[in-house]
Model the fold of this input.
Amino acid sequence: MSVQVLHVTGARPNFPKAAPVVRALREHGVDQRLVHTGQHYDEQMSDVFFRQLGLPEPDVNLGVGSGSHAVQTGTIMTGLECLLSKEEPRLVVVYGDVNSTLAAALVAAKLQIPLAHVEAGLRSFNRAMPEEINRLVTDRLAEILFATSPDAVAHLANEGVAADRIHFVGNPMIDTLMVNLDRLDAARIRAALRLPERYLVATLHRPSNVDDAGDAAELTKAVHASADLLPVVMPVHPRGRASLAASGMFDHPRVRVVDPMGYVEFLSLVRGAAAVITDSGGVQEETTVLDIPCLTLRPDTERPVTITYGTNQLVDRAGLAVSVRAALDRPQRAPRTPPLWDGRAGERIADVIADFL
Done:
């Protein structure tokens, strides 16, 4: 008998989304396989997540490594075509918007294997973002689309997706956050890194911020102005490290550079932060639930629910320090959680998949 469900993951953002789904499908007794494409292969970007999130060891690791978008996507497609032809799963499940997501969607479609997309319908409406292209193509090819927010449902409907293919389930990344909430020890990570009571966290890696030397110089000026207000801790993604170093980012005495962290360590750091500066997608969601001010250095976001319900705001580089100061002075308020971000999204996804099977 063929495998019932084959999950394809490949990069750090995928793993917290997949963990609740794998766990819930196990409760249904579904025969499943987990594939890691190896798009992120560093210990702190990959292996530690499997240990900390209770994900089973991948049944297959394609080990594709880094490369251009075309090289990486093509290499993943070649490996997945062989694997899917052999396994013949009844359903392929993909997560988020990374190159592994796109590659798996294309291969499944060519082999006429049904596809489910977890985190469907997110739109920045900015096609300069590679992730936006990945989202659009994956959603066009998916048979089952799992949406995390009402705006995502609306985008899919506006694009002509049939209502019976769209399932508003909530956010499985938040399931993982809630399961691990008691493990997030801000005091411990602060002591380990010898940080003061108040500090900022920055996660910056997008091409629009770090690839061009002029953009990187502007970013460095903005972060340095923020560091004049509070020390900045910056876990540095391998992508963009050289560009940021060349721009002088790490020369400010109150910019603290650390290596990428595991899931628990990073979110412990975020939980204790006075504010977070980011260009990441998932961090916008996690800070919303943790009620930490989030300043997103982008002109747009595919997660507007984090603005309407959460603590997120879009800022530009020129206004970053002013926005940081305002965030540090914000009055306390009762936190609000987006609809269905209740820690049970993985169960809802598993119920739909079980019915499909």
About this structure: The radius of gyration is 20 Å. The chain has a mean pLDDT of 93. Residues 69-87 form the longest helix (19 residues).
